[in-house]
Automatic annotation (TrEMBL):
Source organism (scientific name): Allorhizobium borbori
Protein origin, superkingdom: Bacteria
Annotated GO MF terms: isomerase activity
Keywords assigned by UniProt, alphabetized: Isomerase
Keyword set includes Isomerase: yes
Protein name according to UniProt: Maleate cis-trans isomerase
Length: 73
């Protein structure tokens, strides 16, 4: 298998979840690698509505960069 045969998955994570890379790696399919990026969400309060609002504001820049939506369903 050559490096170019590997699948790559981009993962955007909030900055507060520190152990997720290790947990995610346990479930990766053979031949895939994950690239992680940490972000700081500008949330004024930690309630559910403000968190979903911050995620919705991130969706447009990701789409303009060619990435899929954060939301599915």
């Amino acid at each position: 298998m050559k490096y170019s045969d590997n699948g790559r998955i981009g993962v955007v994570l909030p900055s507060g979840i520190m152990a997720l890379e290790r947990e995610f790696a346990r479930h990766m399919l053979f031949g895939f690698t994950a690239n992680y990026s940490r972000i700081t969400l500008p949330v004024s309060s930690s309630n559910s509505a403000s968190l979903w609002g911050a995620l919705a504001r991130m969706d447009a820049p990701l789409a303009s960069a060619g990435a899929g939506s954060l939301f599915s369903g």
